[in-house]
UniProtKB/TrEMBL annotation:
<dbReference type="InterPro" id="IPR011990">
    <property type="entry name" value="TPR-like_helical_dom_sf"/>
</dbReference>
<dbReference type="InterPro" id="IPR019734">
    <property type="entry name" value="TPR_rpt"/>
</dbReference>
<feature type="domain" description="RNA-polymerase II-associated protein 3-like C-terminal">
    <location>
        <begin position="293"/>
        <end position="382"/>
    </location>
</feature>
<feature type="repeat" description="TPR">
    <location>
        <begin position="78"/>
        <end position="111"/>
    </location>
</feature>
<feature type="compositionally biased region" description="Polar residues">
    <location>
        <begin position="252"/>
        <end position="262"/>
    </location>
</feature>
<dbReference type="Pfam" id="PF13877">
    <property type="entry name" value="RPAP3_C"/>
</dbReference>
<dbReference type="Pfam" id="PF00515">
    <property type="entry name" value="TPR_1"/>
</dbReference>
<comment type="similarity">
    <text>Belongs to the RPAP3 family.</text>
</comment>
<feature type="region of interest" description="Disordered">
    <location>
        <begin position="125"/>
        <end position="262"/>
    </location>
</feature>
<feature type="compositionally biased region" description="Polar residues">
    <location>
        <begin position="145"/>
        <end position="154"/>
    </location>
</feature>
<keyword id="KW-0677">Repeat</keyword>
<dbReference type="InterPro" id="IPR025986">
    <property type="entry name" value="RPAP3-like_C"/>
</dbReference>
<feature type="compositionally biased region" description="Basic and acidic residues">
    <location>
        <begin position="1"/>
        <end position="14"/>
    </location>
</feature>
<dbReference type="InterPro" id="IPR051966">
    <property type="entry name" value="RPAP3"/>
</dbReference>
<feature type="compositionally biased region" description="Polar residues">
    <location>
        <begin position="188"/>
        <end position="202"/>
    </location>
</feature>
<keyword id="KW-0802">TPR repeat</keyword>
<dbReference type="Pfam" id="PF13414">
    <property type="entry name" value="TPR_11"/>
</dbReference>
Length: 399
């Protein structure tokens, strides 16, 4: 549904937006400028002013869009070019931002503010190019000499023979160190199948034996009771969840057995559970009643949340609900309510359910900021809203 052009209301909304902007109320100013655009969408000043408010809250993409719209209506609008340059700078589009500022200097060559901003952008662009040009020196392997080709032909057996003949004894260094008298200890006899050579294979086997001995020793926990206990219990704590408790897992390890590879313990994801509040007064129209409702409204994009929101809305009568929300309604809350109403109409096709939904929407449409809130919804949310309005018997559109 299109809104009739009203230049007087558009100018008044823009004036209100300028007042809010001077007070630092950026979001409020955006709302007034939006109303100005609705009543007169061909005035480029409305888009330029809203872009400036978007820049104050770092919404660079929205600011760039409004400036582009303004420039489509007035090609050489210096304010729109400058603000779009700032928005593109915030988005990292340095080349496009530089083009906007250079376009301003073609129109006004004496603008010192634009000159300083353009110089800063050019310095940033040069520094980025320098960083990109500094590439790491590629690592190349050293050249292979032809004289070493013969040495690489040595067989594995020859290398193994040489390693077996290496003397690892400390006789060469013992002469330089002072002798220490150590009492003789009886030498242990080697078992029949033990490798006694000093080759790499024997050293590796010795290390593996020490490693196994260490693993076996760590698997036996110190016993606080009798020595006849042959197993110990390892308690693996599991995370607690507010919605579903998972019992602890007891894993019994036998200290006399070899270490075993235990399977990884996996925990199921907690299912989303939402419960309706039981301690609220659904007939109260006090100022705090609306805040309590919004606190229980779920913003999670799941079917469970949409069902929960519909059940929460169903607790209230339409008259009470729109009264407590009429001064608290925001675009994000309105979108959640419309999606929940669509879900409710699919469940309840009776005339009574449609009348409840229409009564609620009729009440919410009476709020002062209804048009602003509805215009700031996403395309999908507005489509859902129009669908709900038609199905419940509404005439015209929600705007």
């Amino acid at each position: 549904m299109s809104v009739k052009v009203d230049i007087g209301k558009s100018d008044q909304s823009r004036t209100d937006g300028n007042t809010s902007f001077k007070k630092g109320r950026w979001s409020e100013a955006i709302g007034h400028y939006t109303n100005a655009i609705i009543y007169n969408p061909t005035n480029p000043v409305n888009y330029s002013n809203r872009a400036q408010a978007f820049l104050k809250i770092d919404k660079y993409q929205d600011a760039e869009r409004d400036c582009t719209t303004c420039l489509s209506l007035e090609r050489n609008n210096i304010k729109a070019l400058y603000r779009r340059g700032l928005a593109r700078k915030g988005l990292g589009k340095l080349d496009e931002a530089i083009e906007d500022l250079q376009q301003i200097l073609k129109i006004d060559k004496t603008n010192e503010t634009v000159k300083s901003e353009l110089e800063e952008l050019l310095d940033t662009q040069r520094n980025n190019e320098i960083k990109k040009s500094k590439s790491r020196r590629p690592i190349t392997p050293p050249p292979v000499n032809s004289t070493t080709s013969k040495s690489t032909e040595a067989s594995i057996e020859e290398i193994a023979d040489q390693t077996d003949s290496i003397d690892l004894s400390s006789s060469s260094s013992s002469s330089s160190k002072p002798k220490v008298n150590v009492p003789d200890t009886p030498k242990e006899q080697n078992p029949p199948n033990t490798i006694t050579s000093s080759s790499f294979a024997s050293l590796k086997q010795a290390r593996e034996g020490k490693k196994k001995a260490f693993v076996n020793s760590t698997n036996v926990s110190p016993s606080s009771g009798s020595s006849n206990d042959k197993s110990s219990t390892l308690f693996i704590p599991t995370p607690t969840s507010s919605s579903k408790s998972i019992p602890h897992t007891d894993v019994h390890l036998n200290s006399s057995s070899q270490p075993q590879n235990l399977p990884a313990v996996t925990y199921p994801l907690a299912e989303e559970t939402l419960s309706l509040p039981t301690d609220i007064d659904i007939n109260s129209t006090s100022p705090g009643a609306g805040l309590i409702f919004l606190r229980h409204l779920s913003s999670s994009p799941t079917t469970t949340s949409v069902k929960h929101n519909w059940q929460l809305i169903s607790l209230y009568s339409p008259e009470v609900l729109y009264r407590i929300l009429i001064n608290l309604l925001e675009p994000d809350n309105l979108g959640l309510i419309l999606i929940a109403l669509e879900y409710g109409l699919e469940l309840d096709q009776e005339q009574g359910g449609k009348e409840r939904v229409k009564g609620l929407l009729d009440g919410l449409k009476k709020s002062k900021r209804w048009k602003m809130n509805y215009s700031m919804l996403s395309h999908q949310e507005r489509t859902v809203g129009e669908k709900v309005w038609r199905e419940c018997g509404g005439e015209g559109g929600l705007m």
